[in-house]
Specification:
The complex is a heterodimer of chains A (324) and B (250). Chain A has 324 residues and is mostly helical. Chain A has helices spanning 5-18, 32-54, 60-67, 70-101, 106-121, 124-132, 134-137, 156-159, 162-188, 191-199, 204-234, 246-257, 260-289, 301-308, and strands at 140-144, 150-155. A two-stranded antiparallel ribbon of chain A has the order 1-2. With 250 residues, chain B is α/β, with parallel strands linked by helices. Chain B is built from 9 helices and 12 strands. Chain B has helices at residues 40-47, 79-86, 104-114, 120-133, 149-161, 182-194, 206-212, 230-235, 240-249, and strands at residues 2-11, 14-24, 29-33, 55-60, 63-64, 67-70, 73-76, 89-92, 167-171, 199-202, 215-220, 223-228. In chain B, helix 5 packs parallel to helix 6. The longest helix of chain B has 14 residues, at 120-133. Chain B is globular. Chain B starts with a strand and ends with a helix.
């Protein structure tokens, strides 16, 4: 039945009159299924906590003894070094590969495509062992004119130390993944931004560095944070080529003392700690590159603390997006 | 100031411009009218070489756009020279295209500092004057997303003016605006026309064209159908096609 307009208006008025404007006091719906689920999970957690606390084979004393030992800390520093170096190489290479991939020149774009195809298509472990054994393929390395004479040359073994092999292996592999992340970021920038920049007389490189990449960062940062955390842990793979990073150091100790589990716990705790630091860092980097966005930003812990204390810090930031 | 000679442009197999010729004198305001798909926007984009033309010539300020003639042959200009010539041609887009990650002041100051290599202090002082001129004094520290469409378009006009262009191109500058915001942009444009800027304006605002234009060009299907003073083209159109179009929009 279709009601005439005046009839709908009339009934609407009746409905409004029937529900006075008071706060609703209703009995909430119960969720027994959820309660049972929560209880089961709580029991499982309690069992886990109990065994961690009471099973003597965890050897928490040994964990405490080695947690801040100098050899473990040296390994940790080496792990962080590897992560930073490999990510730097990966990000720079990724930008270059992404720009090449989007180039109108077929040689450049195809080369970039093939690089990504190869380095994503073979296992990282294989690549690491390959770089480690590079001297078997090229006993001497030299710098000179292509196909012509060399100026400087030396033994590959002297140049490709295990540490260099590790950084090359991790960084070159990372470049392939970062290239796709950067490319996604570049493609996410509106075409109009690029045209506006060109129409102001900017050159291609200026448009890329001043207009496109800064805006692409919003898309690039979250997966790059992910990649960095992944790299922190992938760096443990270089233990197979005997680079004394965190895991390899722990392995050296436990092959001597047979305290395998506690030393793996030591390494894991450090990986978790660094991951936590990286996660916090990513939060602030993302905020920095959110400039000019229309989305409201989440509060920093400091800001929410101030809010809780009821402190109104006015005039500190007149950008409404930074406050709720 | 700007001369377009028998320009043709295809996208794939579709010919968008089929031999367009046009002349704009220094200080003149030319409005281009016409239905969607008639090639107005493409013509504008060809004038500052955002699109490459297939045949014909485009001259701006006495120089060929995108090419150099040497010993009877055309040579494509290198990228940095194309960029330098574009710097003399301001363009205002339908969708504003303000740089989203920069404040209004940074939007205005970027190209003069980067392209013209002018001192930041001088550029920013002039940018503030320009903002005042388009009625946005004090908005320098806002981000584009915090402004209304009309305000953004006025910033875009100020950004084009900051380069001290010899020629201003407007590509349907009010088409993306709410109706109530159209006039604030048109008022700024009328003011520029009065100040003696050379302007080519693609628009659907017949009222603006009648008031501000020195000459009106009516385009359809990739050719100039009719050209003349606003009085001639709008009130006494000779061509049937122009009459049909105007009867729908007036």
């Amino acid at each position: 039945m279709v009601l005439p307009d005046h009839e709908i208006a009339h009934r609407g008025r009746d409905y409004a009159a029937a529900t006075p404007a008071t706060d609703i006091k209703a009995v909430p719906v119960r969720h027994p299924g959820r309660w049972i689920g929560a209880a089961a999970v709580a029991v499982a957690l309690a069992m886990l906590a109990h065994t961690i606390a009471t099973n003597p084979r965890f050897q928490w004393g040994v964990v405490g003894q080695y947690f801040s030992s100098s050899s473990i800390l040296m390994g940790l520093v080496r792990t962080i070094e590897l992560t930073v170096m490999a990510m730097l190489i990966g990000i720079l290479l990724g930008i270059v590969l992404a720009v090449m991939r989007l180039s109108p020149n077929k040689v450049l774009s195809t080369t970039s495509w093939a690089y990504i195809w190869f380095f994503r298509g073979t296992p990282l472990l294989v690549q690491l062992i390959f770089w480690y054994n590079l001297s078997a393929l090229f006993p001497t390395l030299s710098i000179g004119i292509p196909f012509g004479p060399g100026f400087v040359s030396g033994s590959a073994n002297a140049f490709i130390t295990t540490y260099v092999a590790a950084i090359l292996g991790l960084g070159l592999n990372e470049g392939a993944y970062m290239a796709e992340i950067v490319r996604a970021g570049i493609l996410s920038v509106d075409e109009g931004q690029i045209e506006a920049a060109y129409s102001l007389g900017m050159r291609r490189s200026q448009v890329m560095w001043r207009i496109v990449l800064p805006q692409a960062m919003k898309v690039i940062i979250p997966p790059t944070g992910n990649q960095t955390i992944g790299m922190l842990k992938s760096s443990s793979l270089v233990s197979v080529i005997s680079v004394p990073e965190l895991l390899f150091t722990a392995q050296i100790i436990y092959t001597r003392t047979y305290q395998t589990i506690p030393l793996l716990i030591v390494a894991s705790l450090w990986y978790l700690a660094v991951t936590t630091v990286l996660t916090v860092g990513q939060f602030y980097v993302e905020r920095h590159f959110a400039k000019g966005g229309s989305r409201r930003l989440p509060l920093t812990p400091l800001q929410s603390l101030r809010r809780k204390l009821g402190e109104q810090v006015k005039g500190k930031s007149n950008d409404p997006r930074f406050t709720h | 100031m700007c001369r377009v000679v028998d320009v043709r442009k295809c996208f794939g197999s579709q010919e968008i411009l089929r031999g367009v010729s046009l002349e704009v004198k220094t200080g003149e305001v030319v409005c281009i009218l016409g239905p969607s798909g008639s090639g107005k926007t493409t013509l504008l984009r060809c004038i500052n070489h955002l699109e490459k033309i297939d045949s014909g010539q485009v001259w701006v300020a006495g120089r060929l756009v995108g090419y150099r003639e040497h010993k009877g042959r055309l040579h494509e200009l290198p990228e940095n020279e194309i960029a330098l010539r574009r710097a003399d041609i301001g363009m205002v887009f339908q969708k504003f295209n303000l740089f989203a990650h920069m404040t209004v002041l940074e939007n205005l100051a970027l190209a003069p500092v980067l392209v013209r290599r002018q001192k930041r202090g001088i550029v920013e002082a002039r940018a503030k004057e320009l903002l005042e001129r388009v009625g946005l004094a004090g908005k320098g520290d806002s981000y584009p997303s915090q402004l209304s469409g009309g305000q953004q378009q006025r910033v875009a006009i100020a950004r084009a003016l900051a380069m001290e262009p010899k020629l201003l191109l407007f590509d349907e500058p009010t088409s993306a605006l709410d109706p109530e915001l159209v006039s604030e942009v048109l008022n700024v444009m009328k003011q520029l026309a009065g100040d003696g800027y050379t302007m080519i304006v693609v628009t659907h605002e017949i009222g603006f064209a009648r008031e501000a234009a020195d000459s009106i060009v009516f385009m359809d299907d990739g050719v100039v159908v009719e050209q003349g003073s606003p009085h001639e083209v709008i009130f006494n159109p000779k061509q049937e096609r122009t009459q049909a179009f105007l009867s729908k929009v007036l």
